[in-house]
Design brief:
By secondary structure, this protein is of the alpha/beta class. It has helices at 11-22, 39-46, 67-70, 94-113, 148-167, 189-199, 218-231, 248-259, 283-289, 297-313, and strands at residues 2-6, 26-31, 55-59, 76-79, 119-125, 171-176, 179-180, 202-206, 212-214, 216-217, 236-240, 245-247, 264-268. The chain has 10 helices and 13 strands. The strands form 4 sheets. Strands 3-2-1-4-5-6-11 form a 7-stranded parallel β-sheet, with helices on both faces. The chain has a two-stranded parallel ribbon with strand order 7-10. Bound molecules: nicotinamide-adenine-dinucleotide.
């Protein structure tokens, strides 16, 4: 198959492209290196991919490139490109979220309408749910995002649905629940916490640390994408969680144990847009695409810690 991965220089996109290359698919990666975090980190994410003969990279903004031409002969799209991050999505920055998350998705779907795609898989987010009235979160719950980022991810998810409904674009939306592991974005909690504990620096926890998250290890998120490509029916939305719900403070205790050093924690007020709890009901993903998360939090954190240690030594 010939597969397009958008946001290919990012955390999830780079892992996904690698897996597809290993599977022997022809992969085209596109990314415009947005300045949300440093370009050098994204260049490093692409390093291994450059060694694959079946990989081609195009530096381009989805809002500017000829998407009809880009999708020519493409069999499947994994749409990972987005402006990520909940806390940065307020105020004037919302324009960036609108452009990269909503408008870029709409343009890609318009182009997909005229192509022969077998699957269009969209990276959605647990942030579409907002503050849970009850857990676990089910795909049938009414989404009520509480951050502008969540609104932009939900808008794009709705666009995926309506392009399937009206034009048969075979879209599938995967709602990722806090993905972590090697190459995790530098603005994400585990990346910041691990670096700080390794250096003996202070970490900042928003709120009381008793917020809970369903953390998903990167290889599980990638497994879900591959399974969705192979077997997900078009037009659906699936939760992709890690299978366990953990208090943030307990995740920090696991990091302390694995590194062998106490964290210096500074508590500050909860940030607007942050949800209190997440826990995915993954029964639909299990029955429709046989998705089952395999990596425990301890095992996954060990891998992220090793990656950060290697980076710090460079
Ligand atoms: P990331 O920021 O590492 O990767 C996104 C990439 O998209 C970046 O490299 C960026 O340069 C690129 N990009 C943005 N706008 C673009 C445009 N207009 N044209 C071309 N490239 C563009 O983020 P990530 O953590 O890898 O997230 C990947 C996807 O998964 C995103 O859609 C995000 O919303 C979603 N998601 C991530 C998580 C998580 O925990 N990491 C959770 C839920 C959903």
């Amino acid at each position: 198959m010939k597969i397009l991965v958008t946001g290919c220089a990012g955390f999830i996109g780079s892992h996904l492209a690698e897996r597809l290359c290993e599977m022997g698919e022809d992969v085209i990666g596109v990314d415009c290196f947005t300045d949300y975090y440093p370009r050098a980190i994204k260049e490093a994410n692409l390093e291994k991919l450059k060694g694959y003969k079946n990989f081609k990279f195009i530096e381009a903004d989805l809002n500017e490139i000829d998407l009809g031409f880009l999708l020519k002969d493409i069999d499947a799209v994994f749409h990972q490109a987005a402006q990520a991050g909940v806390r940065a999505s307020w105020g004037k920055s919302f324009e960036i979220y609108t452009r990269n998350n909503i408008l870029a998705t709409q343009k890609l779907l318009e182009a997909a309408k005229k192509s022969n795609l077998k699957k269009f898989i969209y990276a959605s987010s647990s942030s579409v749910y907002g503050d849970a009235e009850k857990l676990p979160l089910k795909e049938t719950d009414v989404p009520k995002p509480i951050s502008p980022y969540g609104v932009s991810k939900l808008a794009a998810e709705h666009l995926c649905y309506l392009y399937w409904k009206n034009f048969n674009v075979p879209t599938v939306s995967l709602r990722y629940f806090t993905v972590y592991g090697p190459r995790q974005r530098p603005d994400m909690a585990f990346n910041k916490f691990i670096k700080a504990v390794l250096k003996g620096e202070e970490i900042t926890v928003y709120g009381d640390g008793k917020q809970t998250r369903d953390f998903t290890f990167i290889s599980d998120a990638i497994d879900a994408n591959i399974a969705a490509l192979e077997s997900a029916p078009a037009g659906i939305v699936l939760n992709i969680g890690g299978g366990s719900r953990v208090f943030l403070i307990d995740a920090i205790k696991t990091i302390e144990k694995l590194i062998g050093r106490k964290a210096k924690i500074k508590y500050i007020e909860k940030q607007k847009g942050d949800v209190r709890d997440t826990l995915a009901d993954t029964s639909s993903a299990k029955s429709l695409i046989s998705y089952e998360p395999k990596v425990s939090l301890k095992e996954g954190l060990e891998k992220e810690i090793s990656w950060i240690k290697e980076l710090e030594l460079k």
